[in-house]
């Protein structure tokens, strides 16, 4: 299956549909705007446009945006669409930029929040929980940089709470099936210990998992919810058992974008910066074990196994059931979908 569009971002839903954005550049008088169209692709090849970017407005000030990420609700009926926006603030052309999250249902209607809007300013890394009504997301501090707080929005009532007030996080990976997620806890000064913690949203409690030597990027929970991985160095991926966090493994694996295999045993990795052309490789993860006191954690170097020979691609994704692979073609930015080898 193929989507012959200039795709900028995409993500699988739990029902096998794909939400994707298509770059749209247009001009109004002397001004140039980018506002991505938003589409849904069904497994049978049918397509539906949810948002026509050129017609999307907010207030009287001109706005541009590009889609950063899509996140589906567990019932695959709603989307949280992370946008990077640029809004003109005066006649001199000055702009303000920031991250916002747009709430949509799968028919293209915006989800209006009582007393608010469908566009949540400053919200990133959003995730719908298992009730398909509660949205959790990170909100940056006043400076817009550094660690963030966790906010919880109840869409039906518009009520927003901070379940972990006075706690700050560098990253979070949500797991809606367990009403929680794994986070890297830090503080506003980025000094002191960095901790891996479990956030229990139902009981609004935090459980310490492990102290980390460092954290760089890539926090992710495996499909089973039993393992978590993250980079502690641009060349070192660390994996832990969430049921027994003292069981750990490290591998010399270059930083990049990755997805878990369905059985948690390996990852599919595109090394290097996001959207940069690189090959896509399977990486077998090292076995987890409890390190002996006073001895360093072993650091093996797994051998990458390319799945498209030496061909390079800018982006890819694995379907939630682990059976399909979607990749973006180099040059044309089309999405191609294959059975996962």
Care to describe what's here?
The chain has strands at 2-3, 7-12, 18-22, 25-28, 31-34, 37-41, 47-51, 63-72, 78-88, 95-105, 119-121, 123-128, 134-140, 148-154, 159-161, 168-175, 180-186, 194-200, 205-212, 217-221, 227-233, 236-241, 248-252, 256-260, 266-271, 280-284, 305-306, 316-318, 324-328, 335-339. With 341 residues, the protein is mostly beta strands. A hairpin with a 5-residue loop joins strand 2 and strand 3 (18-22). The protein has a 4-stranded antiparallel sheet with strand order 1-30-29-28, with no helix packed on it. Strands 2-3-6-7 form a 4-stranded antiparallel sheet, with no helix packed on it. The chain has a single domain (2-264), classed as Methylamine Dehydrogenase, Chain H, CATH 2.130.10.10. The model has no long low-confidence stretch (mean pLDDT 91). It contains no helices and 30 strands.
Per CATH, the class reads: Mainly Beta
| CATH-scheme architecture | 7 Propeller
Helix content: under 10%
Strand/helix succession: EEEEEEEEEEEEEEEEEEEEEEEEEEEEEE
How many individual β-strands? 30
Question: How many structural domains are formed by the residues?
Answer: 1
Question: Strand pairing plus helix content: what structural class?
Answer: mainly beta
Number of helices: 0
Share in β-strands: over 45%
CATH fold topology: Methylamine Dehydrogenase, Chain H
Within the largest sheet, what's the order of strands?
1-30-29-28
Shape, principal axes of CA atoms:
globular
The CATH superfamily turns out to be YVTN repeat-like/Quinoprotein amine dehydrogenase
Average pLDDT over all residues = 91
The radius of gyration over CA amounts to 20 Å
Uncertain runs with pLDDT below 50, 5 residues or more? none
- End-to-end separation in angstroms reads 16 Å
The biggest sheet amounts to: 4 strands, antiparallel
